Amino acid sequence: MYSSAEADSVFQMTDRAVMNTYRRLPLAFARGEGAWLYDVTGRAYLDFISGLGVTALGHGHPRLQAAIRAAADTLLHTSNLYYIPPQAELAHRLTQVTGFDRVFFCNSGAEANEAAIKLARRYHATSGQPGRFEIITALNSFHGRTLATVTATGQSKYQQGFAPLPPGFRYVRLNDLDALRRAVTDQTAAVMLEPVQGEGGVNPCAPEYLQGVRELCDERGILLILDEVQTGVGRTGKFLAAEHYGVQADICTLAKGLGGGVPIGAALATERVARAFEPGTHASTFGGNFLAARAGLAVLEALFEDGVLQRAAAAGERLREGLIALSRRRPEVFGEVRGLGLMLGVELKAAGSQFLSACLKRGILVNVIAERVLRLLPPLIVSDEEIDQALSILEQAAEECVSECPSSAT
User: How far is 143 from 140, CA to CA, in rounded Å?
Assistant: First the structure.
């Protein structure tokens, strides 16, 4: 517990010493349990954003705690100059549950996507087609903050001030297969898509679109990269969101929930594509070290051995149905509900900042993206009671928005 003065000191030190790259809310947390976070003053908050989809098992999960303790008691890191037993086991498990053949480990989603971009280009270069280097992505996509992945991101606001951007990226509208066909040239190396756009507004690919993209890639010898950094690891009720579509990519990227809070990313690929990487062509100092790999194994064990994956699917249905009912009761505030599993977005007719403030006042953590899209990413272990409590709070927040500023909810 912190006093008010001590909490203010945390805010002041952060504002003074940390680079100003985030618009932080005036909150600092001290501990968590399950789907709940407790701030430094002891106030409880229902966590429906999960650290931006990271804490898939919630807070303080016993499997994850045990894995982290085991790493601390034995080995945290040695580097990839040597074999790493838990990394080998994690890679093996990932290939088993995804159908891919090889895994490259790194530390984040941006790094995983960077690896995917490099692998796609190198695949064509080693196949005798070095002129195939362009990556086609979707408008409103988000693929990371490195110079390459921010260029792959189809939102100009993230690219401002970083010119010149690296060449080799083109953008098309999501769910417009004709536009994609027109964008493909002899220089196209890969199409890179999120099955459900996260930062862009929780926009899912239409099933016929993603299946059509797979067919187009096969026709033209193009690689399909699926960015499952946010959608993967059970977030949509299946381990990969691609499973909802019956589509297998050539390269797939994971991060966020894979470590349950410990930083880890992964790029997975088929053997045909993965062999383009050879010793020295790509690397990551921390990638897949003992700590991260043990955490990843704990997450997979919980998903597949403890029923968390099935829980996520059932919880997603309950939350979706509740949000649809809420939208019908409060059409002046809530619009379309979209997404998959426990990755859901709701169009807001009230001002996003106003709605977010009303939620925080009532003790629930949510996220507003694209100015007026409420994004919900609760932990995969969230209970029915917690979902119902969240829905009740959202309705209360809507009532406040209407009563305090009726003209904003139109």
Answer: 10
